[in-house]
Amino acid sequence: MRLYNNLINEIKNSLIDAKVLNKSNKSLNTSDRNSVIFLSDTAFELGGNNKPCVSSLAVTSDMAFSNTVYLQGPDLNEIKADSPFGKFVFVQVEDFENEQDTFNKIKELEALRYHLSVDGFMTRASALNMREQIRVSKNAIKSGVSFTEYGNTLLQEYLNFTNVKSAEIYFVTDFNDFEKLNSIAKKISQTTSALNHIFDNVMFDCSTCNLKEICDEVDGLKELHLKNTKK
Questions:
Q1: What's the rounded Cα separation, in Å, for the pair 87 and 53?
Q2: Which helix (H) or strand (E) holds 135?
Q3: Please, what's the b/e burial string for 164-187 (b: 16 or more CB within 10 A of its CB; e: otherwise)?
Q4: 215 in a structural domain
Q5: Do residues 215 and 194 lie in contact, with contact meaning Cβ atoms separated by under 8 Å?
Q6: What is the dihedral of CA 197, 198, 204, 208, to 10 degrees?
Q7: Count of domains forming the chain
């Protein structure tokens, strides 16, 4: 799966100033049920109060990642009020012979943000709006939790998936160009929507499809659709 490669590179080039966070052997407690953090127990919300917010995941089979967490902007201990927030996850998976298997893995990886809860953080995610707002508890801040521990906990969860070879996570709490990153994330979302159409065997006239623009732009997407309609 190479459909997202150019978009991944665009995001990485836009976040060239992001700093590498230390590797951490300290993992935060996790569960498969989202935490509930009341406003009275909240230190601040990442992406809250209508602040710029975007979240995206892109998968590839031939780009290797460094199993690293990056941060552009203030760390958790430096944030005193609701903050802008971006989260970009890049995952390398095995090169499946069947594209359907790759798409199934993409959906499985995407589902993680809805099913994983990290202690001290409450996630409210919307794939439709490409937002992932996160409430951070006062206790988490008081105990000194940073994006290092939080990010490495998430990173390990992605690496624990079968067929995953490497990954990277970028956090953003200070955008140089939010509109540009939001636009790239939208293209990633549209590419995934187009794949969903393809593998659901949706037959449509390309000239009238609302995904025509992204199919024309992303190398290999239209060819993949034509290949699957012939089956």
A1: 8
A2: strand 131-137
A3: bbbbbbbbbbbbeebeebbebbeb
A4: no
A5: yes
A6: 70
A7: 1
Closest CA to 169 of 94, 25, 57: 57
Mean pLDDT of each 10-residue bin along the chain, 231 residues long: 92 97 86 87 96 96 96 98 98 86 90 91 86 96 96 96 97 97 95 80 59 65 58 52
Q: Which domain holds residue 20?
A: 5-176
Q: How far is CA 200 from the centre of its chain?
A: 23
Residue 188 lies in a domain: no
SS3 of 87-126: EEEEEEECCCCCHHHHHHHHHHHHCHHHHCEECCEEEEEE
| H and E: helices and strands count for the chain | 8, 10
Residue 58 lies in a domain: yes
Rounded Cα gap, residues 158 and 166, in angstroms: 9
List, as one string, the DSSP characters of 37-84: --GGGEEEEET-TT--EEEEEEEESS----SEEEEES--GGG--S-B-
∠115-83-20 over CA atoms, to 5°? 75
**Does the pTM exceed 0.85?**
yes
Max distance between CA atoms of the chain, in angstroms, equals 58
Query: Is 102 a member of any domain?
Result: yes
Report the DSSP pairing between strands 164-172 and 30-31. unpaired
**For the domain that residue 91 is a member of, what is the CATH number?**
3.30.1650.10
Token pair listed for 106 = 């993409």
